[in-house]
Amino acid sequence: MYTQSFSVPDDTGQKIKAVAAIEPPELMAKFDARIDADGRIEPQDWMPEAYRKTLVRQISQHAHSEIVGMLPEGNWISRAPSLKRKAILIAKVQDEGGHGQYLYSAAETLGVSRADLLDALHSGKAKYSSIFNYPTLNWADVGTIGWLVDGAAIMNQVPLCRCSYGPYSRAMIRVCKEESFHQRQGYEALLVMMRGTDEQKAMVQDSVNRWWWKCLAMFGPPDADSPHSAQGMRWGIKRVSNDDLRQKFIDATVPQAKVLGITLPDPDLKWNEERGHYDYGQIDWDEFWTTVNGNGPCNKERLSTRVKAHNDGQWVRDAALAHARKQQQRAMKEAA
Ligand SMILES: [Fe+2]
Ligand SMILES: [Fe+2]
């Protein structure tokens, strides 16, 4: 799924300023003209090193978020309440794995290796969306994640379909179609529960209470505190600001909450006639940064599960490579 504005710095050695100063002016002018004309930059095109590094950071953080995002919901596959819900959840979690694959492939077109990107994730240097560092405590959490987390991801990702980097923008078109299914299945699961017993309704309300504020933080820090945003906008990587996306999400979600019959846990949430938007309360940014910096409730668990899954899958990668080598040898023999 997922994004948290992807402008969060990580520790993968980005030394953008020093490099930007030595770009050749003619190439830079051509690049700027293409961006100004809303054209696309393709892998074979010249691009400034700072643009390339920004994209590597953003696309790899996005890819990591997709595959770590499989974990909180994956916990519920064996405990889904019916065959139908299990089938839907397996399909969704599998989609997220696929999103990770498209995005790692898109990042590879920028000259980095998937193995290095995964190393950065597994060693804790690279970031992924902080939303996945919270636990899924009840079945309603699966519905809430679909409705709110995937819903927030759609808001973030639809503008990325127009990103200036061709491979990223094309990957996002298919990703967004699948995210739309994720959001709808989550909302529908919650609707069914809200027509059920009092216990089911209470479970949904408890779940929404725990996830609402964390989903608002997914859009990233306020525009004033978002260091990468202005440059990202200039380069056509980021099209809409964090605060504008957050507002759009709130405005779209409040009516959906009314249909569901749940209360969003914000006493300051009110329609503002003058602005034509909902006003909302203060987001706890200290909690956000604590989690981004590795100290949320599930950071260690998520990382160790991911590392174990990667190590357990080593034999599959070895077997696939051995098979590919054999096929290649056979093809060369037949050609000879
Ligand atoms: Fe998703
Ligand atoms: Fe996804």
How big is the Rg?
Answer: 21 Å
Main pleated-sheet profile = 2 strands, antiparallel
Say which molecules are bound, naming each kind only once: fe (ii) ion
- What is the H/E order? HHHHHHHHHHHEEHHH
The helix/strand class is: mainly alpha
State mean pLDDT (0 to 100 scale). Answer: 93
Strand content: under 5%
Q: Pick out the low-confidence regions.
A: 13-19
Give the distance, in angstroms, between the N- and C-terminal Cα atoms: 47 Å
DSSP helix fraction? 55-70%
Keywords:
single chain, mainly alpha, two-stranded antiparallel sheet, 336 residues, binds fe (ii) ion
3D structure, described in words:
The protein is mostly helical and 336 residues long. 64% of the residues lie in helices and 2% in strands. It contains 14 helices and two strands; from the N terminus they run H-H-H-H-H-H-H-H-H-H-H-E-E-H-H-H. It has helices at residues 16-20, 25-36, 49-68, 70-74, 83-108, 114-122, 140-157, 166-194, 198-217, 229-234, 242-260, 285-295, 299-312, 314-335, and strands at 270-272, 277-279. The protein has a two-stranded antiparallel ribbon. Helix 3 runs antiparallel to helix 5 (83-108), helix 5 (83-108) packs antiparallel against helix 8 and helix 7 (140-157) packs parallel to helix 9 (198-217). Mean pLDDT is 93; it is low at 13-19. One fe (ii) ion binds next to helix 5 and helix 8.
